[in-house]
Task: structure prediction
Amino acid sequence: MYQLFCDSNSEIPYWFAEENGLKVVSMPYVLDNQEYYYDLGRNTDFKHFFQREREGSMPTTAALNVDNYIEIYEPTLKEGTDILMLSFSSALSGTHESLEKARLQLLEKYPERSFQVVNTLGISMGAGLLVYYATQLWKNGAGQDEIIKWVEDNRQRVHHWFTVNDLNHLKRGGRLSGAAAFMGTVLDIKPVITVNSEGKLVVFEKAKGRKKSLKALAEKFKEYAENPEEQLVVVLHGDAEEDGLYLAELIKEICSPKELWVNYVGPVIGTHCGPGTIGLLFMGKERIK
Result:
């Protein structure tokens, strides 16, 4: 018997985790000098978080340490249950080093147990899509090795496409130079951002103006999606529901996905991309190198 885990950076909705018995590692963030752990929307006041960003508050994120991870996972191993953890991309945070140290320490203490970690090479609902489908396999009785193989075989097929409304958040996070942020703001340039094959965020192209950037995301869906009528497609927004719904309508004009979710970007991801962020996540052709 084993327990499936993921982290809140997958942004899978809390109701999905609860309905399916999925355990979630909550990632921390700090807003106005108060630390929170993202609960996948159960009690999160998304509007307050993004409004505080608009008003000039600068939230931060923090990595869990080894002791944090041990405290999270040990009860499961102690009760005699193995662990399969689907983690967000190791290329985007140093917290994975702590996770690996905790895993090795716990296996020394519980050598009869299995504790495996799979790097999704994704973030937000890009990682969440893999969690979504892996959870279905798990609930249908799939073993750990079967799920690991499925995730490793399909993680390069998960597409992440984002655009942001304010380039200064990317600048503050070190993902864009100050000069580029300034010029982009003056010229109303909106970057189209993706996650590459290494699990890193890269600027793929640039669009002039908000509407063109949203249409660019829809074009990426048209170009890269495969069998969307059989899959879940997710639109995320940073307190920009109108734009999120606009993108959802553009997607519906291209095809009718089996499921189409329109949800908030969580505060941990929102710390780095800011209010007005729009994301589009789906399965398709292999992602760019």
The CA atoms of residues 74 and 173 lie 33 Å apart. Confidence is low (pLDDT under 50) at residues 175-187. The domain at 157-283 is CATH 3.30.1180.10 (Hypothetical Protein Tm841; Chain: A;domain 3). Residues 95-109 form the longest helix (15 residues).
